[in-house]
Every structure is written in C-alpha cells, then in structure tokens.
Amino acid sequence: MLTISPRMRWILHVDMDAFYASVEELDRPELRGKPVIVAGPEPRGVVATASYAARAFGVRSGMPTAQAKRLCPHGIFLPPRFDRYEELAQKIRAILYEYSPLVEPLSLDEAFVDLAGTELLHGSPEKVAKEIHERIPKETGLSCSVGLGPNKLLAKLASDSAKPGGLRVVRPEEVQSFLDPLPVEKLWGVGPKTAARLWEKGVRTVRDLREVPLGLLRSWFGQKGGEALWQLARGIDDSPVVPVRQAKSLSHEVTYPEDLFSRDQIIAELRRLSLLVVDRMKAERVLAKTVQIKVRFSDFTTVTRQTKLSEPTDHPLLLAAEAVGLFSRVAIPPGQGVRLLGVGVSDLVPATFSPLHLFVDPKLAEAIREVREKFGPEALSLWEPS
Ligand SMILES: [Mg+2]
Prior knowledge:
The chain is an alpha+beta fold. Helices cover 40% and strands 22% of the residues. The protein has 14 helices and twelve strands. The strands form three sheets. Strands 5-6-1-7-8 form a five-stranded mixed beta sheet. Strands 9-12-10-11 form a four-stranded antiparallel beta sheet. The longest helix has 22 residues, at 263-284.
C-alpha cells in the first residue's frame, strides 16, 4: 500500500538543453545565441526544438511552424537532421554506460541512470553526477542539465529545476522542501485535466496537495487516482529504471483538452506525433515495418488503421506521410470532433538491419531536403504527399 521503499536508491536524470537546436549551433557556430528553430516545413510542419533565444519570442516545441514564423520572423528555421542528433545521442549514452548498465533512454536527449551499487567503482552518486555534468559538455560540446534524487520522479524534477545547464541534487531529507513550492502540474502524472480539477479545489502547489487528506483525494479522483496523488505529493515513486528493452511497439497518443475539428490541425498533430515516435525509435535503435494510427471521436468511438511498409524504416517524413495517409482512410462521423490521436509503429527490427531503402539513405534524404528547400515543399511530391 502506501509505504516508502526501504531500499535507498539514487537515480540520475540527464536532459540535454534544447537538444536539436544546440546541435545545429554546435555544427554552425555562427548560429550561436541566435533564435534557432528546428522545425518541419510549412504549411503543415511543427517546431521540434527552439533554442532559448527563440523561446524568448514565445516559440515552443509542438507549435505549427507558421505560428513560430509569425512570433519570430527573423528566426533561423532549419529542418531536423536526425542522423546527426542520433550520433551525438549515442556519444552521450556511451558516457552514461560507463557508470551503470541501468540506463533508460526516454528519447534522444533524455535518460535515467540507476546508480545503485556503483559506489565502489565510481564513488558517491553526487560525485558521479558532477562528473557526468562536466563530461557531457566537454566531450560533446553540448549543454545538459542533470538531476539526482532518490527516485525517477525527483531526479526528473531536479534536472528540470536546473535548466539550462545546471546540476541539482535532491537529498532524501530535502525531498519535501524541494517539492512543496512546485506547482502541482509539475508532478509527473498530473495532466492538464487533473491539474484543472485541483485548481478548482484551490490546490495549486505540492504543499497544498500534501495537506489534502487521503480520504478526500480518493473521493475526488477515485481509489487509485487519489492514492497516486497522495504518493506524488510526498515524492514517493518506486518505478524502476528499465534498461533498453527490445520494445514490441512504440507509440505516442494525446487526448486533447478540446476536440479537434480542423483537418489541417489534425494532420499537423499526426506529424508531430510521428516525430515523437521517430525520436523514441532512434533512442531504441529500431526500424519499423508497420505504422498505425488511432483516432477517437467526441463520442468515444475509436478507430485504428494500420499499414505495412515494404521496408523497415525510421525516416520521419516517410512515417509521417504514412500516418497522414492512414488518416485519409478514416471517415469522420458527421458533427464529431477528434478527442484523441495516436501514432504507433510495430514489427520492429534492430536499426543495424540497415536496408538499402530509398528513404533511409541519409545522403539522398539530405539531397531531397535541399531540393525541397530551394524549390518548395511540393517540388518532390513523392517525398511527402500532401
Ligand atoms: Mg531536453
């Protein structure tokens, strides 16, 4: 039930700062400090990462490229170069593996490391955190934020509070004083809906949440939901660090606070979700042979569609095009909006499979990208049917 795990754990969380944009600045130093925005092409592309200089204009990841251009007309808009990001992500992961075999990559630029039992070899977890925090920028030229805490929840919140470029250690005796002032929506598992209900009840900070009796939380959010919140407010999280496993499928889905009715918006979302799935595929070094989408309408009816590819791939534009193509086979019932969208891949094979697929050849991909940049997105319609 509601107990604190007796085993002392130390979990490290590494999060690269504005990763894609920082890689572009690394490779082109003349861009440093400028508003660099890595984004898909208009009219339907979305922002993958914005540099801190671009964020100052209000540009955020997930935002349509067109909107980012309005907010930041002098921004430097670049297409993503996943192969380069992956190369650097591997370098970063290699550093982490020197300290522990228990490394769980969450995406290309983020990972948990379980430091249990590494003390004899590498010294105290705090020393290891300091070392990693110094080594990553030194060996890759990229800035990272590092958090160290007694569990994943605290480690992630710690690195978040250290952004950009910092290191934050939360010792067990500091957990409550660290958590208390944070807004409740910072807690993992408190989504926009739960947060909105908590605000309605006057619960804004973790301290507020901690003062709500368990019985009341259960009556607000049900047995399970109430207990989960009770634990989060106390910084309790027993979830293990799961080292790279051979996943059977990967997916991303989002429930929208308001139903989507615009076709353009739905397509932009499918592309954004595809990008997130590709990011996970790169982190797990897999290619996929099957793409599927999930669409849930306002009345909760749910449809899925899937398609098999001729070759396994992890190419973002190809997978996004497949997801959008699948959506064109979905009939939207009259009057219904879309409340949930998901994009997933399955039939995964290790990325070392390396098929000679047209779209996977990075040189060709680069060439096609250049043509599209020069002559517009429609120049090669085969590439990204629209
Ligand atoms: Mg990051």
